Structures are given as C-alpha cells and as structure tokens.
Amino acid sequence: MYHLCALQKEGLSVWNPILKDLFKDHPFLALVTADGPAMAYLNGLVGHHGAFGCRLYCPVKGRRKDGGTHYYPALLKPSNYTVEGCTHDTISPTQIPLLPAPTVYQQNLQLVMSSPTNAAYGFNRKNTGISKPSIFSGLPSTNILGIPGCFGHDLMHLVSLNLTDLFYSLWRGKITCEQTDDILKWDWAAFLNQECWEAHGQRVADCRPYLPGSFDRPPRNPAEKISSGYKAWEFLMWMFGLGPALFFHVLDTKYWENFCKLTRAIRLLHRRSISLKDLRESYNLIMDFIPEFEQLYYQGREDRLHFVRPCIHTLLHLPGEVHRLGPSIIYAQWTMERTIGNLGEEVKQPSQPYANISQRGVLRCQINALLAMFPAISPTPPFPSGSILLDSGYVLLGAKDKNAQTLPPHLSQLIRRNLSTTIPPIPQTIKLIRWARLKLKNGQIARSLWKEKEKHIDRLRIARNIKVKSLPYILVML
User: Is residue 438 part of a domain?
Assistant: First the structure.
C-alpha cells in the first residue's frame, strides 16, 4: 500500500519505445474485491452482522430478533414486532439507492472518528455502519475510484456459494428452525424427504454426459458429495444451470416460479456483454423476486428473520453495479481464487510456504512481463497435423474418413435445399468426407455424432449440440 501510494503521488517512470521518451505513469486503483467477511477488514464497515450491514453501504437498516444481536436485511416488517430500533416500516426494493453514496459515507466517517468516548463510538458505529477508516482512504483521491465506490461486490461468492447454500438449506430443511416454528409445515422443504433428495441427486449426476468438456467440471451427485469438497462451479451449474429443469414438479409451483425469476436474472448478470435491455430485465426480475421470496419463506415472522440473509439484499445492487462498473463476471473472484489455487500447487517448501509462494508470484509476474514485451517468444501453437483451417475461422480436426461416403437420399435432399444457391450446381448423388471434430471461433471443440456414438454414454461428454448464428460452408464435397 505504501509503494502504491508513492507511485500514485510521484509517478513511475516508464520508457515509451515508440516515442523514445520517458513518461510518468500514475497507477489508478479501480476496484478492491473480497468475499464478505474479508471485505469488512478492507472497507472499515461493520460487516454483514451489523445494523447497517450492506457491503455497498446503502441506508437499509436490518432487523434483529428479540434478545439477539445479529441483524438481518428483511424489507418486510414482521407481524407484532416491537424490537427497539428495528420497527421501521416495510421497505419497497425500488426505494433503495442502487449506487454507493460517498458524501453520506464521509459525513458518517467523520462522526465516528470524532466520538469523544468509547460509549459514543459504539453508538455512532452502530448507527452509521462504520467501524474505522479504510486503509485505502490514505491513497490520493484522484487515483482511486472513491470510497466506498472502489469496494465492488463479488459475484462468485454471492451466487455460487451464498445463494446456493441458502436455497439448499431451505429446501433440505437444514436451516435453523426456532422452537416457535414447525419444520413439518415448511411446504418448500421438498428435499426433506430423503428418498426425494437421493433421487434428485442421481438426476444431477445423470446430466453429466450432456455437459460438454468445455463446461469444465460437471456437478457431482449432491446427495452423496455435497459435504466432500463440492466446488463453487458445481453449485453454480447445479442450481442455476440444471436447477430450473430438475426442480420442476419437485418444488411447489410458486416456489419454482420464484426461483426461475432469480435464475433468469443471474444468467443475464453473468454475461460478459450485457445490453441495457437485458440489464433492465434483470433489475425488474430481482425487484419481483425479493418481495416474493420474503412473502413465501420468511412470511413476516420474527422467528424466520434469519431466512433473509445478506446475499438476498445484495442482489438489489447488482444491476446498478453493472451499470457503474461493467459486467460483474469480469471482476468476480473466479480469477483470484484460481490464481490462489495454482500458485499454491507450486509451493515446494512446506517449512516456508509464504516465502515460497511469494517468489513463485514474482517469477510469474516477470514471465508475464516478458511475454507482454516480446510476444514472439510465445508463438501460437500450430494446428494438429492434418487439420484444415477454414476461411470462416473454424478448424476441421481429425479423425476423418479415408474415403468419401455416399449420403442417403434424405440427407442429400437436405443439403441441396440449404445450399441451392451454390455454384456449380449440387449433384443428385452427394459424397462427403466426414470429420470428427470442429474447433469453433470461441475455442470450444464440437464433435460429430459419427464419433461420439462409438463411446458409451457413461464415458462421454456430448459436444455435438452447438448454437450458431450462421452456418459456414464446411462440407468437403467430392
């Protein structure tokens, strides 16, 4: 931090080889990201347990149970609720500001810092949601996105771990049930029945062959593996990839429809390029989902306040953050978590792990810098022998037929109908050389049924179902 601050103030001399001159570069700190508990150390806020626990510092105050100290961001006021300091009226989600308020933050920070006694500090901390100045406030204000504006949300942990854990806990009946409640009356707990849960887990595992290898690791059977290192990607694919289909007719319709609204919004917000129309749609879906969620599960009951976890509230801010910072997936924690993992794999000295991993990081930065300055030292790997690079950017990959195959009449007719404008005219009898694989423009590899049908379904990751906007002329005709 000291080094960054010095560079921002004094500048870093960088050689421009085109202009053959030195220029001063002043690094700009755009975003600081972390999961929820870690973020409290960085932004100086009270964290998700506080009365004002929003990590994006919005003015919504939480509600606590009678005698409890943990606040929950429920918008719906509980029935017959008299807990002091939490009896504010029901809040409409459309009333909540979507963007951080730097002016309010600075005023409240000054109030906390000017507290004359410990008692005054405790009072001000509770009523402002600020526990201390952020260490990042020491950086020049012209070289930072602002505080709290530089503390963005974390789409990875929010969706793939926090939301999935909440729905899993609700539908499995694993979430805390107070003595004044009755778990047998939870009509949303469809997987409370062990047989139903095991059958669902098997359906998840059965989907494995239909997720191509480019989808990375398919979700394992959650009924067997959810407590055995179930990965964030598995949770994401299980809940928001396969969920809408697998939960249909398992969850009651009203719960399924509510979940589908969230799924649609989550899928839109995971795009690397989002249109304004899609962003508005995600916003409207979230504005519908949250009040419905509270009415369906929490139902305005004080003993169910813990159903409304901070991850539900954070959803309100996602569309606004995308509008302010860009698509969330670009700065989500996936890259950092993966970097932590593969750097950790390189540690070879258990006695000094931190020194070792630090040196591995430095070495990687040096290599990346060299590759950036001299791209020629890292040539693009050549295409495999026998492959054909097509003009459209696709690549035909083996295996392939040794001899041309005569197509059945119905397939010949289909080809003539779709390629009727080609010159010369297509003959009545068509012979083709079949190729096993096609590399797409996005780097994924699609396979043909010709080769995929040779493997048993249990050993296959089907990759022949692709979506194309325009079909290239990729037939090798003889």
Answer: yes
Task: Round the CA-based radius of gyration of the chain to a whole number and report it.
Answer: 28
Cα–Cα distances (Å) from 204 to 169, 221, 243, 258, in that order, read 18, 6, 9, 21
The residue type at 360: R
Would you put residue 151 in left (φ > 0), alpha (ψ -120 to 50) or beta? Answer: beta
- For the segment 139-174, what is each residue's pLDDT rounded down to a tens digit? 999 999 989 999 989 999 999 999 999 999 999 999
Q: Is the peptide bond before 133 cis (omega within 30 degrees of 0)?
A: no
What angle (nearest 5°) sits at the alpha carbon of residue 363, between those of residues 357 and 364?
A: 90
- As given in the structure block, the two tokens for residue 177 are 């049930």
Please check whether residue 379 lies inside any domain of the structure. no
User: Do 84 and 178 lie in a common domain?
Assistant: no
Burial label for 365, CB within 10 Å (0-12, 13-18, 19+), is exposed
Closest by CA to 55, choosing from 147, 142, 139, is: 147
408 Cβ contact list (under 8 Å, min separation 6): none
User: For the range 114-123, what are the long-range contacts, defined as Cβ-Cβ under 8 Å and sequence gap of 24 or more?
Assistant: none
Q: Looking at the domain assignment, is residue 54 inside a domain?
A: yes
**Among the listed residues 67, 68, 72, the one whose alpha carbon sits nearest the alpha carbon of residue 300:** 72
Grade residue 110 by pLDDT with cuts at 50, 70 and 90: very high
**Which residues lie across from 405 on neighbouring strands?**
432
What confidence tens digit (pLDDT) does each residue in 212-241 have? 988 889 999 999 999 999 999 999 999 999
Share of the chain residues as helix, strand and coil, in percent rounded to the nearest 5: 50, 10, 45
3-state secondary structure of 396: strand
Give the CA count within 13 Å in the CB-facing half-sphere of 99.
11
Burial 136-170 (b: 16+ CB within 10 A, else e): beebeeebbbebbbbbbbbbbbbbbbbbbbbbbeb
Q: Please measure the distance between the N-terminal and C-terminal CA atoms of the chain and give it in whole angstroms.
A: 66
How many whole angstroms separate alpha carbon 12 and alpha carbon 4?
A: 10
User: Which amino acid is present at 335?
Assistant: T
Residue 353 tokens read as: 């792990």
Domain that holds residue 44: 36-143
| DSSP 3-state of 33 | coil
In a domain, 366, yes or no: no
